[in-house]
């Protein structure tokens, strides 16, 4: 067997918040490609993505992303990856186009290149008209789409998409699927979290299922179905996650800061 350098190489990764151990010796390895992390609400998907993408530190374990340590090689890794969540990393005072130009500059693209690629992305997400207006006038859905477009402009080596299509209308969701597929075909690796089984099945080369603090299954959709004798990926998911569904503090994606303040409030 020939091995290229793994995209993600994680071994015995643990992370707790207070006494709550969210990730317990998580171990997996993925080659370059388009992969999906499935897991019930509160399973720790966002926590894992935040660790992989340098945003938070693991308590223990070994993590390599594109061969780099997210903490020790943070700067270098940040120049190779792009990450988006359900919150918009967007400047509200600027217009969509201005945000786009800023992002392009950040990634060293020329203005012309940014306008060309940015224009196409804005069109794709139905933001062409809105692009002239300040983001403060956008709806939540529009901000989210702009956030995604901004994330895609840099065409980095690896993109983390944390529940990228949650809350999007069907049309935008399908447009995003197309973008993701096109990016992957062009050689960008993608690690996405999703609660939509059909999304994982439609897009991902390999699927990881996170449950009870660990990876309980890993493989292609076909492999997972075969292994569990299940007809659909939904049956696989239900079979793997039926025990003690992690209903503890099941929060949809919020920023770490928001979570911290929530916890601080409830712990008092
Ligand atoms: N900064 C934080 N402080 C305290 N608890 C947190 C923090 N971030 C996440 N958690 C908790 O860790 C668990 C996993 O959260 P998360 O990674 O957001 O799961 P998912 O993305 O799979 O829904 C949840 O119980 C959540 O409340
Ligand atoms: Mg999440």
UniProtKB/TrEMBL annotation:
Residues 8-237 form the ABC transporter domain. PROSITE patterns: ABC_TRANSPORTER_1, ABC_TRANSPORTER_2. GO terms for molecular function: ATP binding. Gene3D superfamilies: P-loop containing nucleotide triphosphate hydrolases. Residues 244-268 are annotated as: Disordered. It is found in: Cell membrane. Residues 244-258 have a biased composition (Polar residues). It is a peripheral membrane protein. The keyword Transcription regulation does not apply. Pfam families: ABC_tran. It comes from the Bacteria. Keywords: Antibiotic resistance, ATP-binding, Nucleotide-binding, Transport. This is ATP-binding cassette domain-containing protein. The lineage of its organism: Bacteria, Bacillati, Actinomycetota, Actinomycetes, Micrococcales.
